[in-house]
Every structure is written in C-alpha cells, then in structure tokens.
Amino acid sequence: MNTTAINTEATNAIILTTGMFDLLKDQIRRKKLPHHNEVMLVEQLRNAKQVLRKDLPDNVVDINRSVQLADVESGEKFTYNFVAPDKAKPKHKTVSILSPIGLALIGYAEGTELSWEMDNGIRQYRIEQVTAM
After folding, report:
1. β-pairing verdict for 65-71 and 77-83
2. Angle, vertex CA 59, rays to CA 73 and CA 27, nearest 5
3. Which residues form the Transcription elongation factor GreA/GreB C-terminal domain (predicted)?
4. % of the chain with per-residue pLDDT over 70
5. Residue 7 has pLDDT above 80, yes or no
6. Quick one: fold of 15-132?
7. Which helix (H) or strand (E) segment is 21 a member of?
8. DSSP state string for 31-87
9. What is the rounded CA–CA span in Å between residue 115 and residue 80?
10. pTM of whole model > 0.85?
11. In this predicted structure, what is the pLDDT of residue 2?
C-alpha cells in the first residue's frame, strides 16, 4: 500500500502511471471523445505527473480501484469499480476505466471536484473515496 503524498493542487495535475498516460493519449488520437472532454483530457495530460505503479498514491483513481462519487448538483452518490476494458462486466458491477466516467475521474485524488460531459450534459462531480479492489 502506497501512502506517498503528491501535492497536485498547485498545478491542478492528475497523477497517472506511464501505461495509463499512453492509453489516454491513444483515446485522444482516436477522436472518440466529445469535444469538451477531449479539450479537458488534453489539458490534463499536459500537466499530468507520471509515476510508476508502485508510486501511485492509494487515494488516486486508477484501474482496479473502487470510487465513491457524488454528483455535486443533485447530491446523488455512486460507486464505480474500475477495471480494464476487457474485464468490465455489468453482472460483476465493474466498469471500464475507459468509460466516460472512468475517463473523467482517472488520475484525480479523493476530495477533487471536476466537470465532465456525460450523455445528459456537463456534470459536476466530487470524488468522496478511493479504495483498492
């Protein structure tokens, strides 16, 4: 378990493993994102801090992590269990890290508020808790 604290608030940077950084760059290259999200992701990657998997803080959203999330506007709470795209199965209550919500949250730490374009418009979310699965 890694408890390393990396301060990203001053730079608004996300923290990603090198492999996840490359995977996200590929998503941009493939032009599979709504324009708002593509612009956001490009900016996030520009400021991203890349780390080795062993150095990724435990409170940062990544693959094989469970995330408790709150919709800031409605107050509704959700839990997502993020896995690799080929491992995502609704019957196991797992979601691909490359899903719209996964892309919105990847690399952010607990307590972060962010906006992302979903099917029902731009939503504002707060990451309540991140735990290993």
Report:
1. antiparallel
2. 75
3. 57-131
4. 91
5. no
6. Chitinase A; domain 3 (3.10.50)
7. helix 18-29
8. T-S-HHHHHHHHHHHHHPEEE-GGGS-TTB--TTEEEEEEETTT--EEEEEEE-GGG
9. 17
10. no
11. 42
